[in-house]
């Protein structure tokens, strides 16, 4: 945690935290069945302490048939048996807290699993019943109701409507196994407020809200056309009342929220971060930005500007469980990220991508605000090519097999180079196949390699926590501010409040470092002349 920061006594921890995302199924296998679990996470807590993170964000660990990687929740008060049980979750939360690491969990309020007791009851009930009122059941169009009720498109492609045996259709903005809840129904709101209390009582420090802008729907469920305002199911005004009621609950437990809010309108985005709503939200503009100095600077400026009016800290992330691994993406001709652009067989230069990913790590960790680190990024893992017959992601299946899906960034982690499954588990084959050569990225080998990605992240996180140059000035928020420095074209250079300077060279040729007292860390060695090589970043202690 940021306990060594001068402002920690008064500043909320979450404003400048380093938060590590754990996709439980692929983190570490404690019982040897091929699936990651809570026992595996508990065994690796010392690794996470040594890495230097402040908190862990767990993607859904609840009871689920895994139609969408756990984002189809059957019971919010139960841990999926593949991962462990509730007692183990409580023990993990407590053990991590004793080691100075907080826990954030994932809530998926837009939908539940089709195995959830509410939906099973709705299927068993008649059209127009109270059970079906908890969801969006409608009659179909066409002479015999054979057509979907409207023209909406699923987030995973195709129609978001599935017809049941009695002829009605139900709405699912994602997979058919994820029926959307009716947030106009008071029982839906009450249930989620009770779930929040349930987990805050068990010691979680915060909640990440999945698809936070999609919950509320136009009651008429009308057809959608580009330019429709308000949108029938994205960013509707009714959402803010929901999150105000949630914030009141979180405040009683000193808990926080981080929202998954994909919105192009910065003013609309900022509304979710007003003081009585969410604490933070993910920054997708930076995540999706190409490796280009001008575009990165604009993404940084825009992010800070859209957060400033509501006083919320920015968040920075390079990759997550839905996004192509940074090393692979930065080694491609098109270095940005767009779901629609994902195709099989895209060539990548892993050496170039790794060099850029190392520089991007120092860039993201130097920016003011909170940073999220997806498991395996600290190992420099590339996107894996999953054999088509082993892909499980519904995005692949719903696309008719054209989209490679997201499994390539979810491959089980390599821990020990000389053990079966690269040390992920003791015996069974991992649930997703590890590529040939995966053991070369193993944490045990990287731990003793001064030039490894893991060593770079450990040192960067150590400096981020303890180096005075990262601290805020009196009267500033915990994250402090950023001031751009004059620099050559293609070079990003900025100074933090107390003198930490970050320089990132994307110019295509070596660049001069600004004046400084000391070089704290570089993502690659400097040129013999002292110049900063292309695709390299440096942290400097500024001249006093």
Automatic annotation (TrEMBL):
<comment type="similarity">
    <text>Belongs to the glycosyl hydrolase 13 family.</text>
</comment>
<dbReference type="InterPro" id="IPR017853">
    <property type="entry name" value="GH"/>
</dbReference>
<feature type="domain" description="Glycosyl hydrolase family 13 catalytic">
    <location>
        <begin position="21"/>
        <end position="410"/>
    </location>
</feature>
<keyword id="KW-0378">Hydrolase</keyword>
<dbReference type="Pfam" id="PF00128">
    <property type="entry name" value="Alpha-amylase"/>
</dbReference>
<dbReference type="GO" id="GO:0016787">
    <property type="term" value="F:hydrolase activity"/>
</dbReference>
<dbReference type="InterPro" id="IPR045857">
    <property type="entry name" value="O16G_dom_2"/>
</dbReference>
<dbReference type="InterPro" id="IPR006047">
    <property type="entry name" value="GH13_cat_dom"/>
</dbReference>
<protein>
    <submittedName>
        <fullName>Alpha-amylase family glycosyl hydrolase</fullName>
    </submittedName>
</protein>
């Amino acid at each position: 945690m940021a306990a060594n920061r001068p402002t920690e006594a008064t500043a909320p921890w979450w404003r400048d935290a380093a938060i590590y995302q754990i996709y439980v199924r692929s983190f570490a296998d404690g019982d040897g069945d091929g699936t990651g679990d809570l026992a595996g996470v508990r065994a690796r807590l010392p690794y996470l302490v040594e890495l230097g993170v402040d908190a862990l964000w767990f993607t859904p660990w609840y009871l689920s048939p895994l139609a969408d990687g756990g984002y189809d929740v059957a019971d919010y008060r139960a841990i999926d048996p593949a991962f462990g049980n509730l007692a183990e979750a409580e023990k993990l939360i407590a053990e991590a807290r004793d080691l100075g690491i907080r826990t954030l969990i994932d809530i998926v309020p837009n939908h539940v699993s089709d195995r959830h007791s509410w939906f099973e009851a709705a299927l068993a009930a008649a059209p127009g019943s109270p059970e079906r009122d908890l969801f969006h059941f409608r009659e179909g169009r066409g002479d015999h109701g054979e057509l979907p009720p409207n023209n909406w498109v699923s987030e995973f492609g195709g129609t978001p409507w599935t017809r049941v045996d009695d002829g009605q259709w139900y709405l699912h903005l994602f997979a058919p196994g994820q029926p959307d809840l009716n947030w106009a129904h008071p029982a839906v709101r009450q249930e989620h407020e009770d779930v929040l209390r349930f987990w805050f009582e068990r010691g979680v420090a915060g909640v990440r809200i999945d698809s936070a802008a999609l919950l509320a729907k136009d009651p008429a469920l009308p057809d959608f056309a580009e330019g429709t305002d308000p949108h029938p199911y994205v960013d509707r005004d009714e959402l803010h009342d929901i999150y105000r009621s949630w914030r009141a609950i979180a405040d009683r437990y000193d808990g926080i929220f981080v929202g998954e809010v994909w919105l192009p309108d910065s003013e609309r985005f900022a509304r979710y971060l007003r003081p009585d709503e969410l604490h933070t939200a993910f920054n997708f503009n930076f995540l999706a930005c190409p490796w280009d100095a001008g575009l990165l600077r604009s993404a940084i400026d825009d992010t800070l500007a859209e957060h400033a009016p509501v006083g919320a800290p920015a968040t920075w992330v390079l990759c997550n469980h839905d996004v192509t691994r940074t090393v692979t993406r930065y080694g491609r001709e098109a270095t940005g990220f767009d779901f629609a652009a994902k195709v099989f067989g895209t060539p990548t230069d892993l050496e170039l991508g790794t060099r850029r990913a190392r520089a991007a790590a120092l860039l993201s960790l130097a920016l003011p605000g909170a940073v999220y680190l997806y498991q395996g990024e600290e190992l420099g893992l590339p996107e894996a090519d999953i054999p088509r017959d082993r892909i499980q992601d519904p995005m692949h299946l719903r696309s008719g097999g054209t989209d490679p899906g997201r499994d390539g960034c979810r491959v089980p982690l390599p821990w020990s180079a000389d053990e079966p499954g690269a040390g992920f588990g003791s015996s069974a084959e991992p649930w997703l196949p590890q590529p040939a050569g995966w053991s070369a990225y193993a944490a045990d080998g990287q731990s003793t390699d001064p030039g490894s990605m893991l060593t770079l992240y450990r040192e960067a996180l150590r400096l981020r926590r303890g180096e005075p140059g990262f601290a805020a000035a009196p009267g500033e928020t915990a994250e402090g501010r950023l001031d751009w420095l004059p620099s050559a074209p293609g070079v990003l250079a900025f100074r933090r409040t107390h003198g930490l300077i970050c320089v990132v060279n994307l110019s295509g040729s070596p660049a001069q470092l600004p004046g400084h007292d000391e070089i704290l860390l570089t993502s690659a060695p400097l040129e013999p002349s002292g110049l900063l090589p292309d695709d390299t970043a440096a942290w400097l202690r500024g001249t006093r």
